[in-house]
């Protein structure tokens, strides 16, 4: 459950604690080590500028040695090199590494996160076009669900990704109702009266969703980021974590002109890895008293990570996505988002490397360094500078 659960005992975490293993996975054309691959292609497109909040000094040097994960394969391992700008296929955006959660060596860690037996029901109740300050545009989808009463969100980049539950005709609704709740195709404009969806009450004046499906490029799965709410990092410029930067970078990558398959940020209301803002602030005080991020959670009698991802799986299915490319360093997230019966399959993992590690802006602070170090050392995150270009 996303909600805070202070009654749980330390060690009761859904996942995390301990490092993941690693092994090689055979793929057509060679082998690679998904667990150690932090493939990240720099795409020189500024459709989405780097973090607006840049409180600290931009970094051009490598991260401190303390952040180099000892658990991953050294940079000389075949197949782990990060493509650089010159070699990369720039129009396609960031490169991922193939992953396969159905085999132990598939780059998804060794732990099995506890999953709900049945996916929750979700309904997209409204969507609206959001023009953004970068010029890129996305559609914000707001969902209700059968397990909590929070507004979970999907930020959809690309016009061909549609919500089934949004498009379903509601009993007794008028075309104006449909327009107001966002169940229309194309764009709204003054004077428009028809939603244009198949099965809608009047004939559409616009393309149908079948047209949209026909336009969709078949080759690529969309880029997806499952993001958990972080008020401190996203809204009040905290340098304790890189959540704000990750959210912005995900949106930038999804907005790149070459990203024809589109992108989805599933924004889950599980603040503070599921313990809530109040408890996270207590954890910050414990961190200032010397605990790391995992220890602080455990001292507060929370799991190291109290999150779940069933809602994300259900929302992705509602948005018609059965295969995705996932932006994450967290191996547990890959398994968890696939759902109990692999309803969604993660085909590739795309690494999220802090911008400052790449000399691409971002920020540095001792707090975020400690946060990332704990993720690598205690939570098995696949973040490693060894394979990045020097
Ligand atoms: N309890 C706790 N939560 C934190 C802390 N710092 C950040 N968070 C929360 O951690 C969550 C961010 O995690 P995500 O960005 O989804 O990613 P992740 O699972 O760490 O892995 P990536 O996908 O690789 O980024 C947000 O809910 C933040 O509020 C902390 O010190 N303590």
Automatic annotation (TrEMBL):
Mind telling me which InterPro entries this protein's record contains? GTP_cyclohydro_II, RibA, RibA-like_sf
Q: In which pathway does it act?
A: Cofactor biosynthesis; riboflavin biosynthesis
Q: Which reaction does it catalyse?
A: GTP + 4 H2O = 2,5-diamino-6-hydroxy-4-(5-phosphoribosylamino)-pyrimidine + formate + 2 phosphate + 3 H(+)
Citing just one GO molecular function, the answer is: GTP binding
Biological-process GO terms, alphabetical: riboflavin biosynthetic process
Family the entry assigns? Belongs to the GTP cyclohydrolase II family.
Q: What is its EC number?
A: 3.5.4.25
Show the Pfam families listed in the entry: GTP_cyclohydro2
Residues of the region (Disordered) are 1-89, 195-215
Q: Which SUPFAM superfamilies would you find in this protein's record?
A: RibA-like
NCBIfam families per UniProt: PRK00393.1 (NF001591), ribA (TIGR00505)
Q: What is this protein called?
A: GTP cyclohydrolase II
Q: What's the source species for this entry?
A: Trichocladium antarcticum
Does the UniProt entry include the keyword Lipid biosynthesis?
no
**GTP cyclohydrolase II domain boundaries:** 221-345
Q: What are the protein's UniProt keywords?
A: GTP-binding, Hydrolase, Nucleotide-binding, Riboflavin biosynthesis
Q: What Gene3D superfamilies does this protein's entry cite?
A: GTP cyclohydrolase II
**Compositionally biased residues, Polar residues:** 51-60, 200-211
């Amino acid at each position: 459950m996303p909600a805070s659960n202070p009654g749980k005992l330390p060690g009761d975490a859904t996942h995390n604690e301990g490092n993941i293993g690693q092994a090689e996975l055979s793929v057509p054309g060679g082998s690679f080590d998904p667990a150690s691959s932090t493939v990240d292609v720099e795409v020189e497109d500024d459709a989405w500028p780097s973090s607006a909040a840049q409180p600290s000094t931009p970094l051009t040097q490598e991260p401190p040695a303390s952040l180099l994960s000892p658990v991953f394969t050294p940079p000389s391992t075949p197949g782990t090199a990060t493509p650089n700008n010159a070699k990369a296929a720039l129009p396609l955006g960031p490169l991922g590494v193939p992953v396969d959660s159905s085999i132990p060596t598939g780059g998804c860690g060794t732990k099995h996160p506890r999953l709900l037996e049945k996916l929750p029901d979700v309904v997209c109740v409204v969507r609206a076009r959001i023009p953004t300050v970068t010029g890129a545009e996305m559609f914000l989808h707001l969902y209700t669900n059968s397990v909590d009463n929070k507004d979970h969100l999907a930020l959809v980049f690309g016009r061909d990704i549609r919500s089934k539950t949004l498009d379903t005709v509601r009993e007794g609704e008028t075309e104006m109702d449909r327009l107001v709740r966002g169940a229309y195709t194309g764009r709204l404009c003054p004077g428009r009266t028809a939603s244009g969806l198949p099965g809608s009450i009047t004939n559409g004046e616009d393309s149908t969703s079948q047209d949209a499906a026909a336009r969709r490029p078949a080759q690529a799965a969309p880029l997806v980021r499952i993001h958990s709410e972080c008020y401190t990092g996203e809204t009040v410029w905290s340098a304790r974590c890189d959540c704000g930067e990750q959210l912005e970078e995900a949106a930038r990558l999804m907005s790149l002109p070459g990203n024809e398959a589109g992108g989805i940020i599933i924004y889950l209301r599980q603040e503070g890895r599921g313990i809530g803002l109040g408890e996270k602030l207590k954890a910050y005080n414990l961190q200032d008293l010397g605990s790391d991020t995992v220890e602080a959670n455990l001292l507060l009698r929370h799991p190291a990570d109290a999150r779940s991802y069933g809602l994300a799986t259900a929302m992705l299915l509602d948005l018609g996505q059965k295969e995705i490319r996932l932006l994450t360093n967290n191996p547990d997230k890959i398994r968890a988002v696939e759902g109990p019966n692999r309803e969604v399959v993660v085909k590739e993992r795309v690494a999220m490397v802090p911008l400052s590690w790449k000399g691409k802006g971002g920020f540095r602070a001792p707090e975020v360094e400690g946060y990332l170090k704990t993720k690598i050392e205690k939570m098995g995150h696949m973040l490693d500078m060894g394979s990045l270009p020097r």
